[in-house]
């Protein structure tokens, strides 16, 4: 379970988050919507312990991130907007390396299967990632994050750079991860993808949670209308 | 986990053409410096052997001269190059390597290498010690400055940390990788030096091995400090360009500015008289007596009377010995006291100046390793003082022997002193007694302590603060 309790974070005079409280249950996918600068990435960095909250607490699977960030991270899978890999390693070697850092060991066959499951073409598996497009690197990142079988998965604009087909595959994969019991939090600008993937979405604006929605009760167009209305209201 | 990160970091460095180029340049410089140093040592050894041969032949060809005249004829003492002088010249290029030894006067060492250098050579020594202590840290800073900052900028640091890897392990993987490369360079230099030495007829004694171990070990510790600081700055500073700027300024301060300030401070706090002033003071004290007591003429008259009383005679023409030899020996012994007094004071002042550098070594690891490097190479001020002392001791023995011959090798005939024919070949050449490694450590323990303190402190600081380094850049 992912829990933030009244979390605030400022950068100088800029208040990035103002008392954010949220909970993502096991098996649930929570979409985090909001314009640029709303606090989505700050929230994710706080969940991963990359930043320390000024106020409030964050727990991952019951582990206080501020007290034991390494243990909290071990229980978390993470995909960033721009997945960073070792450019001189192949996709397989990258996955093998990152998995071993998480204490996991896979056979060559398993590594290949996991990369393919993340949408990477089989012929690319043994190529150096320095030759990869952003979308291909993103798929390796997805394979790395999902291979941990983590209790929590945090995605920051994961579909960025993916083609529509790969983006759909990602949604399927995210749902599968949630169905296996993980709590998933996904920050995105893509309302259609949010509607397709998430059980619940929240809208952040200027660091505050301003709206919580159940996407299953509306169409993607409805979701977009509500989102835009919300932006106009607050601006 | 650290081992895996270490291997990955090595591969990352290998894949970075700029880092590889810098390390290849460092390797080439070290190997070249070892070869140049060995060649310079060979040339110096040959020159010394030739000079020794000539001066010995001249000495053995002396005929018909009185022992007193031979005392003035004098001889030469040549400073041998230490076994590791090829690795670190230390202060040797600036100190004299030849001492003229003669009766009644102590001559300072002359013919330093620097006295014959062109202005270009004066710009800097190209020896392995300088490269390891001065150049290699800059090259390491140029390769390591972005080690963490770059990973933070590309997001790789986030990817690693998100796997649950402790930040401390990430930093240690990098530190060990860069240090391993530095150690490879030190090892390559050591092997090259030993190889050249053995193939050119040298022998590895226990002391040479101990000195070589101390030399390589002290540079290895210094390079660990450099790597920890470089990676630490890269980890703490917001971006890689700022990290490079900080490391470059730190290098400049440690290797150029602080050593000069220290030297200036040492000479301000403990001023050293010039060679001319030193020699003038010796002359004055020798003639007027130390501190104005016991002037030369009074000393001579008193001694003359004492000798006559001892033999129970009225004048020198009745003595069974040549009183001139006895008086000269007494005068030389007094001169020895004067030299001991002034040289002792001078050395004490130099020691105090070195003490300032040793104190500053606790602030600047570069100054610690420079002192240790030349001490293990046998080329520091303390080793030079040992040579001067041994040369002076040889002079005293030689002059004492000649004065004794002048006093006793002859007979009295009708009141006149008839000298025997003397074979001066019996007086042996100067034999330099090499100082053992314990001598180097005994004089340089503050630097060793400072270097170890730096290594421990930097490692502890890195461990303590590693968990708090920024994983993401500034902003959201």
Task: Give the tally of β-strands of chain B.
Answer: 5
**Given the structure, what is the number of helices of chain A?**
8
User: What is the overall silhouette of chain B?
Assistant: elongated
Greatest interface (CB-CB under 8 A), with counts per chain: A-B, 37 and 26 residues
Alpha-beta classification of chain A: alpha/beta
Strand order of the largest sheet of chain B: 1-2-3
Strand order, sheet with most strands of chain A = 6-7-8-3-9-10
The level of helicity of chain A is 25-40%
N-to-C series of helices and strands of chain A: EEEHEEHEHHHEHEHEEH
Element-by-element helix/strand order of chain B: HHHEEEHHHHHHHHHHHEEH
Low-confidence stretches of chain A: none
Q: Count of DSSP E strands of chain A?
A: 10
Question: What is the oligomer described by this structure?
Answer: heterodimer
Number of helices of chain B: 15
Radius of gyration of chain B: 30 Å
The biggest beta sheet of chain A reads: 6 strands, mixed
Beta fraction of the residues of chain A?
25-35%
| Content-based structural category of chain B | mainly alpha
The averaged pLDDT of chain B comes out at 88
Q: Secondary-structure blueprint of this entry?
A:
The complex is a heterodimer of chains A (235) and B (476).
Chain A: E1 2-11, E2 14-24, E3 29-33, H1 40-47, E4 55-60, E5 63-64, H2 69-74, E6 76-79, H3 91-101, H4 108-117, H5 134-147, E7 152-156, H6 164-179, E8 183-187, H7 191-197, E9 200-205, E10 208-213, H8 220-234
Parallel strand pairs in A: 3-8, 3-9, 6-7, 7-8
Antiparallel strand pairs in A: 1-2, 1-4, 4-5, 9-10
Helix pairs in contact in A: 3-4, 3-5, 4-5, 7-8
Chain B: H1 2-14, H2 17-60, H3 67-73, E1 75-78, E2 98-102, E3 105-106, H4 128-144, H5 149-154, H6 156-162, H7 167-199, H8 206-236, H9 240-269, H10 275-288, H11 296-311, H12 323-360, H13 365-377, H14 381-408, E4 410-413, E5 416-419, H15 437-465
Antiparallel strand pairs in B: 1-2, 2-3, 4-5
């Amino acid at each position: 379970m992912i829990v933030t309790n009244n979390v605030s974070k400022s950068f100088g005079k800029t208040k990035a988050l103002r008392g954010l409280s949220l909970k993502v249950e096991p098996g649930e996918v929570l979409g985090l919507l909001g314009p640029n600068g709303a606090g989505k990435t700050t929230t994710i960095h706080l969940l991963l312990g990359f930043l320390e909250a000024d106020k409030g607490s964050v727990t991952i699977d019951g582990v206080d991130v501020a007290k034991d960030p390494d243990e909290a991270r071990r229980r978390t899978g993470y995909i960033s907007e721009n997945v960073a890999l070792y450019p001189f390693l192949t996709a397989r070697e990258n996955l093998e390396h990152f998995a071993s850092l998480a204490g996991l060991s896979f056979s060559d066959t398993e590594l290949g299967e996991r990369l393919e499951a993340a949408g990477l073409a089989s012929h690319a598996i043994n190529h150096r990632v320095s030759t990869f497009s952003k979308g291909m690197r993103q798929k390796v990142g997805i394979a790395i994050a999902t291979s941990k079988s983590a209790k929590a998965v945090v995605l920051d604009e994961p579909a960025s750079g993916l083609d529509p087909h790969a983006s759909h595959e990602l949604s399927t994969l995210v749902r599968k991860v949630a169905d296996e019991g993980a709590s998933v939090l996904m920050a995105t600008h893509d309302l259609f993808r949010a509607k397709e993937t998430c059980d619940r979405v929240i809208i952040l604006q200027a660091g505050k949670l301003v709206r919580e929605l159940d996407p299953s009760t509306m169409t993607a167009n409805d979701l977009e209308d509500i989102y835009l209305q919300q932006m106009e209201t607050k601006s | 986990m650290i081992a895996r990160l270490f291997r990955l970091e090595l591969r990352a460095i290998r894949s970075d053409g700029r880092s590889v180029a810098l390390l290849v340049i460092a390797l080439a410089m070290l190997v070249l410096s070892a070869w140049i140093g060995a060649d310079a040592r060979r040339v110096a050894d040959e020159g010394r052997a030739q000079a020794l041969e000539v001066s010995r032949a001249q000495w053995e060809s002396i005929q018909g001269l009185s022992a007193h005249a031979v005392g003035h004829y004098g001889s030469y003492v040549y400073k041998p190059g230490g076994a590791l002088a090829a690795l670190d010249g230390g202060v040797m290029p600036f100190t004299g390597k030849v001492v003229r030894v003669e009766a009644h006067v102590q001559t300072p060492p002359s013919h330093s290498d620097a006295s014959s250098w062109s202005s270009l050579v004066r710009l800097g020594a190209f020896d392995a010690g300088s490269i390891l202590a001065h150049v290699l840290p800059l090259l390491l800073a140029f390769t390591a400055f972005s080690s963490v900052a770059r990973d933070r900028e590309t997001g790789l640091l986030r990817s690693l940390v998100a796997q649950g890897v402790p930040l401390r392990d990430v930093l240690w993987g990098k530190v060990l990788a860069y240090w391993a490369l530095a150690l490879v360079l030190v090892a390559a230099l050591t092997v090259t030096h030993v190889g050249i030495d053995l193939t050119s007829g040298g022998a590895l004694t226990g002391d040479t091995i101990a000195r070589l171990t101390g030399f390589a070990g002290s540079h290895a510790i210094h390079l660990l400090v450099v790597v920890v600081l470089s990676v630490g700055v890269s980890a703490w500073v917001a971006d890689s360009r700022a990290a490079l700027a900080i490391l470059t300024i730190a290098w400049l301060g440690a290797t150029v500015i602080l050593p000069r300030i220290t030297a200036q401070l040492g000479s301000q706090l403990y001023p050293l008289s010039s060679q001319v002033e030193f020699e003038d003071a010796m002359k004055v004290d020798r003639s007027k007596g130390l501190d104005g007591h016991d002037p030369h003429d009074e000393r001579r008259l008193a001694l003359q009377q004492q000798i006559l009383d001892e033999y129970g005679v009225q004048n020198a023409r009745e003595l069974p010995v040549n009183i001139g030899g006895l008086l000269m020996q007494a005068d030389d012994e007094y001169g020895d006291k004067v030299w001991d007094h002034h040289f002792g004071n001078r050395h004490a002042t130099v020691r105090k100046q070195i003490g300032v550098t040793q104190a500053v070594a606790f602030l600047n690891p570069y100054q610690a390793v420079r002192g240790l490097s030349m001490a293990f190479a046998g080329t520091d001020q303390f080793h030079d003082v040992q040579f001067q002392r041994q040369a002076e001791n040889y002079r005293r023995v030689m002059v004492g022997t000649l004065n004794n011959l002048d006093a006793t090798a002859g007979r009295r005939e009708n009141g006149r002193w008839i000298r025997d024919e003397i074979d001066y070949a019996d007086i042996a050449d100067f034999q330099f007694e090499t100082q053992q490694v314990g001598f180097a450590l005994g004089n340089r323990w503050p630097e060793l302590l400072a270097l170890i303190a730096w290594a421990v402190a930097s490692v502890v600081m890195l461990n303590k603060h590693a968990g708090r380094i920024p994983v993401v850049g500034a902003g959201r």
